[in-house]
Amino acid sequence: SSYWHDCMHQNLEWVSKVRVNTQAVLKRAQHIQGQKIPKKQWQAAWLLKAVTCIDLTTLAGDDTPSNIHRLCLKAVQPIRYDLLKKMDMHNKGVTTAAVCVYPSRVGEAVITLKAANSSLPVASVATGFPAGQTPLETRLQEVRMAVAHGASEIDIVINRKLALAGQWEAMYDEIHQFREACGDAHMKTILAIGELGTFTNIYKASLVAMMAGSDFIKTSTGKEVVNATYPVAIVMVRAIRDYYLFTGQKVGFKPAGGIRTAQESLLWFTLIKEELGNDWLCPHLFRLGASSLLADIERQIYHHVTGQYPAYHELPMA
Amino acid sequence: MTLELYHNILGPYLNARYILYVNVIAQPSDYLKTLTTFMFFHSFWSPGVDVCSTVCAVEDDISQCASSALNGFKAWSVLSCYQRAKVLLRLVSVLGQHGQCVSELCELCGASCSSSTLIRQLQYYSSWAQLRDTLITNWTPLGVVAVVVSDDCSLYSLMLKVLPALAMGNSVIIVPGLNTAPPALLLAQLFIGAGLPAGALNVLTGSDMSLCAKVAQNPNISHVTYSGNKQDGVMLCKATAGMGVPLSVSPCIGATCPFIIFESADIDSAVDEVIETAFKKKREVHWVLCVQESIVDSVVTRLKLRMAGMKCVALRSDGDRVLVDAAIQEAQQQGATLIQPCSVPPSGAQYPPTVLCGAAPSSPFVVCPAPGPLLPLMTFRTHTEGVTIGNHTPHGQAASIWTEDLTLALETARSLSVGSVWVNSHSVSDPCMPVSGHKDSGTCTDGGQEGLYQFLRLRSSPPPLPRSSPVSMDYSNFGTAACPAIIPDDSDPASAPKPYPQFVGGKACKSVSGCSLAVQSPGGSGVLAYCPDGGKKDVRNAVEAAIKVQPGWMKKSPSARAQSLYSLAKGLEAKRRDIAASINVQTGLSMDEAEKEVELGIARLSDWAAYCDKVQGGALPMPQSGSALSFPEALGVLGVVLPDKNPLLSMVTLLGAAIATGNAVVMVPCQKYPLPALAFIQVLQSSDLPAGLVNIISGGRDQMTVALANHSVIKAIWYWGSAEGCQYLQHTCTSPLKTLRLFCQKDEEGKDEGKDWTQSHPSFMEEMWRNAVQWKSVWIPTA
């Protein structure tokens, strides 16, 4: 994490040299969207894989202990047991990757999961989510408190003001402080790509976030107008690849916001496989931030197993 | 008949022999039925099974086809523009119904072409069909056009010739290659269903280029145009030499094209795209990856990473595998390192995608690219060097350049000597983009309004070449006949004929050989003057001087070029008496008439001066978002063998057309009346044109023709002369290809119809300057 300080000058130059050609990225995204998606049992397998990569999320003003409780239990049993059994996957420990909540709800989530004998990590958004427009001191305090309440993953948002002004060094310093405040918790850095203006800025922000020690970089909060899109993802994963080439460190990627269908989740896997390779196809390095996606995946799996489409009430709600 | 055709071609009995041309009137119900049959059968085909078989047309088929095409031309060309446009548009809706079928047939035949591409072409050319008489006045279709393509040519390139020819009102005989034969037959069928008159579109299938020569031989054919690989193109040139049929060649297959990545590029995108295009199984060009030295490491690292996991690419044959192995071995012996995603299979017609790092322009695999998925990687230091390396090939088809720097992109695009420049993209083609193959990559322009003129001629001028049969001639002996020795008769020094100098590199001089020719007076009664007997060495000196100044002349602002031309006109005005006198003694024209010709010449030069800033490209209406620009560019150095008619006026007209558009020129005065041109040298000497831009070399016409034909720098030859001369040029100017404008002038006095040089109609001037430029399209896609 002291990487930046070791070679500050070199890193600044690296960031400043970044160029992204928008139309070429859009063309690439279109190419990937045109790829064939796996069918039948292969599709079912990929969908189960997708389940294990989901950060099952609720980030609403009306979150209370009761819906947090429901969410956690759904995360532990994301697919109906009988369906898993039909596929002989019932004892493979299929759960989502984590649950993701607001800092004030972390405690309740931790208690529910503990009571359910689950070691599922609780992720908390922090640092003035979603806008990040609070003083640095309170943002840091927010991180510390979420960790103290038992969150083992922290999704921080970057300071868009610094990114838009090109103050990359200052942004690095902030993220680096968050990193230290996280302690042993994983840190995912939300770039809020919908508010960064250009692909080039997104690429630069990705690099700086990784240099400052992020374990993951994440597209958006889900609260901006533009969220996880394929072209943006291409820009970010290229930055991840670039960072890996230079440092040998693998940083994870988390698209979030607007991912609702099983079909889309398969496309995301295609994109990761094409751009980063198989190493990244696991919950350590790839997460899908979603809330309603799980229901659609479960429906598709139901269809795969039984051959008929279920009504929503046939599958347990989150 | 239609049904039979389809049943036989597309049915399960694949080895039978069938009809080769489609010129029957089909009932609409018929073709629908046949299409259904086709759709039914094709689902049973599997890869590796012969799609269908076609047989070689015989003489009878050709003559039948040609006469049906002539009838087709009559029926098609009398239609109104609107009616022709409507037929093309109707085919769009037919393709809307059967597009799937067409593209699947293309896929099966290995000539893949999506129906949306075809629809775009049809829509583009239907609007030109509609507006032909409105926007292109005074031009008329050629007649029957034969479109010939090689086996490896794509359907897109084929249709890029067929559709403009049809849109302009010509009828077309397609001689397709193996790949394009079935889709061409199907399209012809659909066309007839869409209301194309019978005979307006014909398809003749055959096995090799000999069929094309037989087709070209038919007197009903007015023009032959070719698209495909270079070898077959050259064969066609040689085979049709002397037939009196103009041939335009677009060797779009097999060119070497640079893929230039500057340090200011989006490297990730550039690497992804080069991987996508360079390792295709069917690729039309050989890419050479040129990378700026400062980013070569990061490009190579990304190539390695992005290529990991790629699988072997199928080669066309085991023979190709031998070539690939040999190329790789040679490359490794020269120290090239390889990037390969997987191990090389010990044998068989497949090979892994391979980047050859450490290539140099002199590497054998760069000079002579092997088939298969091989991509040489070269480095360059500066922007200028990148352009130099990109230009240093015999080919001039296309280039892909990658940079986010707009100024650099545009500067590089202008400096590359290629027909298409793709900025931050590659392999983008659209019918609205006019593209001429530069250097060895073609003799005509395809696409855009500019590409239409290939299929049109001026209403006012007759076809330039009379149809003839090739005479058997010894090409190596052409132009070597010794000129009669001159024994000067200096009995009376006062009346001794004056020796004229020629004009090379800005200097009036004698010929290198030191020999002279006697210029006869009009009645043939005596020697009028002596002119230098120029040859190869004189042409060499002239071209040497010309290439030094031509790039600078082309880069000059149009108004600066105009100023020089105005002052040339002024210079001619100052010497009008001398020049008129030379016309008078040379041609026997009265002094009044001679002065009138000079007067016209002065006006003509002023016209060309005014044209300098009117010859321009523009922004093109591409369907995708981005900026597409077209630029007219000078051909380079032109060789002109001047006509006998109006010796001064024709010379200044051609000279003006050439230099107004930025070319340098080597002119050969007509052998019969050389004096006006030689007298014009004094005007040139007093002008401010750069020394070497205009050269005048007198000499035996055939001898000079040989000298021009055998200099590779000369990109185009405009020739007025004998039928043998035309045949010689058509046969000889094939590597590199030269753009030929040939006019066969009859030798007998008074019978020469030819061009009317005194006309000053705008389209007469337009034809001239269009012949003096080549087009470049630049595509800059944006989001």
TrEMBL record, chain A:
Record GO biological process: carbohydrate catabolic process; deoxyribonucleotide catabolic process; deoxyribose phosphate catabolic process
Highest rank taxon of the organism: Eukaryota
Record-level Gene Ontology MF annotations: deoxyribose-phosphate aldolase activity
A Pfam family annotated for this UniProt entry: DeoC
Its EC number(s): 4.1.2.4
Reaction(s) catalysed by this chain's protein: 2-deoxy-D-ribose 5-phosphate = D-glyceraldehyde 3-phosphate + acetaldehyde
Pathway: Carbohydrate degradation; 2-deoxy-D-ribose 1-phosphate degradation; D-glyceraldehyde 3-phosphate and acetaldehyde from 2-deoxy-alpha-D-ribose 1-phosphate: step 2/2
Function: Catalyzes a reversible aldol reaction between acetaldehyde and D-glyceraldehyde 3-phosphate to generate 2-deoxy-D-ribose 5-phosphate. Participates in stress granule (SG) assembly. May allow ATP production from extracellular deoxyinosine in conditions of energy deprivation.
NCBIfam families per UniProt: deoC
GO cellular component terms, A-Z: cytoplasm; nucleus
UniProt entry keywords in alphabetical sequence: Cytoplasm, Lyase, Nucleus, Schiff base
InterPro entries: Aldolase_TIM, DeoC, DeoC/FbaB/LacD_aldolase
Sequence similarity: Belongs to the DeoC/FbaB aldolase family. DeoC type 2 subfamily.
Major localisation: cytoplasm
Subunit comment: Interacts with YBX1.
Name of the gene: DERA
UniProt organism field: Sparus aurata
Localization (cell): Cytoplasmic granule; Nucleus
UniProt-recorded name of the protein: Deoxyribose-phosphate aldolase
Active-site residues annotated for this sequence: K218, K254
Automatic annotation (TrEMBL), chain B:
Gene: aldh16a1
Protein name from the UniProt record: Aldehyde dehydrogenase 16 family, member A1
Domain Aldehyde dehydrogenase: start-end pairs: 52-459, 517-741
Species the sequence originates in: Sparus aurata (Gilthead sea bream)
A GO term, aspect molecular function: oxidoreductase activity, acting on the aldehyde or oxo group of donors, NAD or NADP as acceptor
Domain of life: Eukaryota
